[in-house]
Design brief:
Elements (H helix, E strand, L loop, with lengths): L1 H10 L4 H22 L15 H11 L10 H20 L15 H22 L3 H32 L4 H10 L3 H19 L11 H4 L9 H26 L9 H22 L5 H10 L2 H8 L1
Helix pairs in contact: 2-10, 2-11, 3-10, 4-5, 4-10, 5-6, 6-8, 6-12, 6-13, 8-10, 8-13, 10-11
Subcellular location: Membrane
Organism: Candidatus Wirthbacteria bacterium CG2_30_54_11
InterPro entries: ComplexI_Subunit1 (IPR052561), NADH_UbQ_OxRdtase_su1/FPO (IPR001694), NADH_UbQ_OxRdtase_su1_CS (IPR018086)
Length: about 300
């Protein structure tokens, strides 16, 4: 019976299947709201209000021919999308969904999650590099350059509540705000920096420099197709959910509400996703030098003051 419970927790709820479903729903919400804010309709034909469009897109990619360029490093080119997918999926298993979690929370779990969420950017750089494509290499270099710009402010913002709480355990950080609700006022500065940092980490507008379609086609993923491209895109949507859930857990209060805590948790995560969608729809792409200046100066100042 214990083996069955572990299997359900890992692969069904609150495990991988639930995460993929939430990621595809977040993709639909992102595309639908983004279209509405631009006076367009967005997905509407596949399922009610186009709800099944992300599922259809995923199935289509999985059925496409999987091509590996002759010049590419075959092993690295093929394995890297799986590494990105596994890293984000592993990070999700450490997040407490309300009072539910796949694994028991442990001291230092927030550091493990941050490491796993930072790994995909390095994977994207290596994917572009080993594709032996000009667009891929150029996009990969942009991705790793941008990483050095946003990662420090993002880490300072996320770890500031941990320092204030005196614990590196995510569940204790989340419950701290229930005992000390006034601390959430102090969290506002860190929340702003964390949201901006997450937007850059996800390479979404205005920080989508590594894969600017009008400049370098698809960036690190230009040569990817079929199942590998499906894994990459799915990993990015999963990272949107996991990153938003991390911010909701750290900054937006503890669990509370008893058995309704998972619903409350999902609502908070959805609110963070909505903010990210509004940022994407309301901004234009920055140049790489503007990203560096913005990330290293503007968000770092309030984050640094909050850290101190």
């Amino acid at each position: 019976m214990e083996i069955v419970n572990v299997f359900v927790s890992l692969f069904i709820f609150p495990g991988l299947l639930s995460l993929i479903t939430l990621a595809l729903f977040a993709d639909w919400l992102d595309r639908k709201l983004y279209a509405r804010m631009q006076a367009r309709v967005g997905p509407q034909y596949t399922g009610p209000h186009g709800l099944l469009q992300p599922f259809a897109d995923l199935i289509k990619l999985l059925a496409k021919e999987d091509i590996t360029p002759k010049q590419a490093s075959s092993f690295m080119f093929n394995i890297l999308p799986l590494v990105a997918f596994a890293a984000v999926g592993s990070a999700a298993t450490l997040l407490p969904i309300g009072r539910l979690t796949v694994y028991n929370s442990f001291p230092g779990d927030i550091l493990v999650i941050l490491y796993l969420l930072g790994l995909p950017t390095l994977v994207y750089f290596l994917a572009g590099w080993h594709s032996s494509s000009f667009f891929g290499v150029f996009g990969g270099v942009r991705a790793i350059t941008q990483l050095f710009a946003y990662e420090v402010p993002f880490l300072i913002a996320i770890l500031s509540p941990a320092i204030l709480t005196g614990s590196w355990q995510l569940s204790e950080i989340a419950n701290h705000s229930l005992v000390h609700p006034l601390h959430m006022v102090v969290y506002i500065f860190g929340l702003i920096v964390a949201v901006i940092g997450l937007q850059a980490k996800l390479e979404r507008m205005p920080f989508d420099v590594p894969e600017a379609e009008t400049e370098i086609v698809g960036g690190p993923f230009t040569e990817y197709s079929g199942k590998k491209l499906a894994l990459v895109l799915l990993a990015r949507q999963m990272a949107l959910v996991v990153g938003s859930a991390l911010i909701a857990t750290v900054f937006l209060g503890g669990f509370g509400l008893g058995w309704m805590s998972p619903v409350w948790f999902l609502l908070k995560t959805g609110a963070v996703i909505l903010v990210l969608v509004f940022i994407r729809a309301g901004t234009a792409r920055l140049r790489i030098d503007q990203v560096i200046d913005f990330s290293c100066e503007t968000p770092h100042r309030p984050g640094h003051r909050f850290f101190l």
